[in-house]
């Protein structure tokens, strides 16, 4: 039976996370199902940004000694509990793309170049493969692709140095068994770097408990750090003194303010810093991470799954009759999004929804993604978003001519 509005409201009345919605500044009339692409703005972020702006004006260069310089490791420690990591294991810096480059080079160096193949997955977010290709081009290493749906075990051998995998796939939302796969890769003598872009802030993550040594992620999606907010990098405590990372800049030097002629890596996670970062970009993220410290991740996961299922339950009958394919994995194997395919009109349907204030996103070819962010979405929001979806598809509103032309960012 299709869920009623009253049943959605009832779920809201019993929602232990309901109080968080008021702590986000969402525009009036918007139903935001794209927090898996850019998270909404925490109200505290605005104040934090204003404070740093004024600190720049009033304190000038002294600001670097007032929390700007050590922000990468301070925010890393704030973020660590959400990832199942300990203090000194996470640094907030650069972005996923650069952090992958740093970790790949670090692993190659730590293995004394005994292995020469970097394996990445076909069909994953392309930057993860592009950066492997770039590193291989400049070092003579070899790039190997694990085809989508292929069996990882078939692609591992004694030449593989490192594997880059996403814990949750950006298109399908499929969740991998991080502990089992990490064990498999390490049995073969290789390392795996986990990309947490679609799992950090979307569900409980247990890096230490899963035997993970290396991971990267971003903070502008589920973690609500703001557009272009810095990414993060995790290295297990026992694996932090094995070599150099290739972006060997002065902020990762053992004594950055000695201005020595030769590079010497800083101890611990600090060697994964590069050069000067934007203090302004760290301010809203720090406010957001403080809010995250209050969140019960078990309750978050339960609500995330319930929101996704509510959306599907409201629309299942429509999918069948309108040629829409629901490729979302079963509940136990999914992240925090619902992925629907309409080959011909996926783009136009998403545009028609955006025109109604229901924001999801489109990924070619044909894929409509809807992200579920339990801190600022209510069950009623999701019910209403599904109602709009049904109306757009049933009336073919998406065929309006203005909806068919594409913007640069989709
Ligand atoms: C969003 C995303 C990225 C983005 O990388 P940036 O360097 O932060 O732009 C990388 N990998 C995956 C899997 C993503 O979903």
From TrEMBL:
It catalyses: L-kynurenine + H2O = anthranilate + L-alanine + H(+); 3-hydroxy-L-kynurenine + H2O = 3-hydroxyanthranilate + L-alanine + H(+). Pathway: Amino-acid degradation; L-kynurenine degradation; L-alanine and anthranilate from L-kynurenine: step 1/1; Cofactor biosynthesis; NAD(+) biosynthesis; quinolinate from L-kynurenine: step 2/3. PANTHER family: KYNURENINASE (PTHR14084). It comes from Halomonas mongoliensis. The lineage of its organism: Bacteria, Pseudomonadati, Pseudomonadota, Gammaproteobacteria, Oceanospirillales. This is Kynureninase. InterPro entries: Kynureninase (IPR010111), PyrdxlP-dep_Trfase (IPR015424), PyrdxlP-dep_Trfase_major (IPR015421), PyrdxlP-dep_Trfase_small (IPR015422). It holds the Pfam family KYNU_C. The modification N6-(pyridoxal phosphate)lysine is found at residue 221. Its cofactor is pyridoxal 5'-phosphate. Its EC number is 3.7.1.3. Gene3D superfamilies: Aspartate Aminotransferase, domain 1, Type I PLP-dependent aspartate aminotransferase-like (Major domain). One of its GO terms (molecular function) is kynureninase activity. Catalyzes the cleavage of L-kynurenine (L-Kyn) and L-3-hydroxykynurenine (L-3OHKyn) into anthranilic acid (AA) and 3-hydroxyanthranilic acid (3-OHAA), respectively.
């Amino acid at each position: 039976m299709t869920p009623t509005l009253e049943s959605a409201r009832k779920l809201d009345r019993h929602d232990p996370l309901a109080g968080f919605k008021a702590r986000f500044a969402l525009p009036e009339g918007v139903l935001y199902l794209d927090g898996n692409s850019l998270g909404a703005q925490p109200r505290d972020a605005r104040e934090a940004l204003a404070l740093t702006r004024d600190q720049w004006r009033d304190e000038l260069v002294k600001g670097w000694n007032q929390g700007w310089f050590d922000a990468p490791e301070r925010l890393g420690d704030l973020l660590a509990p959400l990832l199942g990591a300990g203090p000194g294991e996470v640094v907030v810096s650069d972005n996923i793309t650069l952090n992958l480059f740093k970790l790949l080079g670090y692993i190659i160096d730590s293995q004394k170049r005994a292995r020469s193949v970097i394996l990445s997955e076909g069909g994953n977010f392309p930057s993860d493969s592009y950066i492997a290709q770039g590193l291989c081009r400049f070092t003579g290493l070899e790039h190997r692709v694990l085809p989508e749906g292929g069996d990882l075990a078939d692609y591992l051998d004694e030449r593989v140095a490192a594997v880059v995998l996403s814990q949750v796939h950006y298109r399908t939302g499929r969740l991998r068994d991080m502990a089992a796969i990490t064990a498999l890769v390490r049995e073969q003598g290789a390392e795996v770097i986990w990309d947490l872009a679609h799992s950090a802030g979307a569900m409980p993550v247990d890096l230490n408990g899963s035997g993970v040594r290396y991971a990267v992620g971003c903070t502008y999606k589920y973690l609500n750090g703001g557009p272009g907010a810095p990414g993060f990098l995790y290295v297990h405590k026992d694996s932090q003194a094995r070599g150099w990372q290739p972006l060997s800049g002065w902020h990762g030097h053992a004594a950055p303010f000695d201005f020595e002629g030769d590079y010497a890596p800083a101890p611990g996670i600090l060697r994964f810093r590069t050069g000067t970062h934007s203090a302004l970009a760290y301010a809203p993220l720090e406010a957001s991470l403080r809010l995250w410290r209050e969140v019960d991740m078990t309750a978050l996961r339960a609500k995330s799954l319930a929101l996704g299922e509510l959306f599907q339950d409201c629309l299942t009958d429509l999918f069948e009759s309108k040629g829409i394919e629901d490729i979302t994995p079963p509940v136990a194997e999914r992240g925090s999004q619902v992925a629907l395919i309409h080959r011909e009109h996926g783009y136009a349907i998403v545009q028609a929804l955006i025109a109604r204030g229901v924001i999801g996103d489109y990924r070619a070819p044909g894929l409509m993604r809807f992200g579920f962010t339990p801190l600022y979405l209510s069950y009623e929001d999701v019910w209403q978003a599904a109602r709009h979806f049904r109306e757009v598809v049933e009336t073919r509103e998406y065929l309006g001519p203005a909806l068919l032309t594409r913007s640069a960012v989709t």
